[in-house]
Amino acid sequence: MKIRLLYVAFLMLLTSCVSIKKHNEQISKLHSVKDLRKDIDELYSELKKYHPRLYQYRTKEVLDYKFDSLKNSLNKPLNSRDFYKKAVVVISQMGHGHTAISPPAKIRTKKERKLDLKMKNEFNELKFETLNSKLFISEGAESDSLLIGAQVLKINDEDISDIYVNYRKTFSSDGFNTTFYDKAIGKHFKELYLKNNGRQDSIQLILSLKDSLFNRTFKRVLRKKTNSNDKQKNSLKIKPNTKEKNKISWKEKRKYNKIHGYNYRDKTYNRNLEFIGKDSTIAYMKIRSFTKGNFKKFYEQSFAKIAQNETQNLILDLRFNGGGKAKEIKNLYSYLTDKQFQFYARSEVKTRMPLLKVIYSNSTPAFTKIIFGAVSPFIAMHRMFSVEKENGQLYFNYGTKNEKPNPLNFKGKIYVLINGYSYSAAALLATYLHGSKRAFFVGEETGGSYNGTVAGFMRQHKLSNTKVAVRYGVLHIATPYKENPDGYGVKPDVEIIPTIKNRLNKTDPELDWILNEIEK
Length: 520
Description:
single chain; alpha+beta; six-stranded mixed sheet; five-stranded antiparallel sheet; 21 strands; globular
């Protein structure tokens, strides 16, 4: 029996090694013109089959022409990454921010992955922000904190201005919005660089700060070993011991982190509430994303505190909030109104079973398909009753029922801070607050469209030859509020665009304007 198990284990290991080698060879080799063109046909066919609003911002004639032109331009063999660089330009011109393609990554062996755990890339410790199409370092590692505010002029001898133009061609906002690009390039600069250039062991930046030019090289280096005393000092978790006091502290800290959605990598919370302004009478709620954390508990506790303090002004900060759970923003809005409401309109779909089409894509692991296979008949039956047809269009009823306001609902004045990276779910919440005339907006136009977005269930499909993956939503999610022309975000009542001077002086012009307005 033991010999059989060892034999099976050996076969699995051998198969895995062969599979990794085959995959890496597949993405690095030059694909024939015939195979490249087949992948273009496959890509367009996939989108036409399941994307519910493919021609919302570009007509069918325009997209047909763009895909045909792309196909005809492929006249020599290319590897997968070079093929991606050509195809991504057409995908980004569709005007759907949640629709994206990615080049296949090399699968690393167990030995390489083990080495990666011992290494760190110094470049990854930096954070960037783009202001007026210029790239700045917004956060650095402890050893590079003096770099904060430095403008990046070149990266590995390539001008940032050229990189900016190229990266803007690799993704899209929803519709015709432009504020999203600046914010997204800064926030995701590291990911974009990796996507377009692959993994690099050394990256050199030419920087400018306070009228001086200098360069800095960031490398992959061994992680520093920390002793037990250092770990204890830096840890946010308080380890329990025999004393009851420490046990309570540890449990409370863990519970607090869970409710507020603590991000251990960035050492930030997804959700925060504090009281600011004169005599701390203004509630300031910063929501970085609608993702991890127990949001129901957070809003319940937060609005109980707001009611207890008899707060009259609430500032909701949605800047740099890229979205998240659709059900969370609906829950949050129930605390911001005293009227019954329907948060979502019916979602347009191209299939009666959108969830199953996501699960059974060609990129889903076989094990996952097997697990869902047992329950798929029940999912299909439930979804069949959730989808209805009207005038030839299929609609998925998600979140369309009337909701009651929460008993702890806030009745005072609401100010909302928005910028170009207030996107997806954050833009939907801003739309509902704007459409219901419930809030006053300060900042810049949201990156997400006022009239909704194609997202929800996200399907991923890998192209047969190049293994480039396309990922897109299969639901058009929108609130009942609409605005013309289509394809633009929520516009602020007062537009304020921060500058690098604000960042260097650590001032927040948008928040300061609201505080001054309240004080008046």
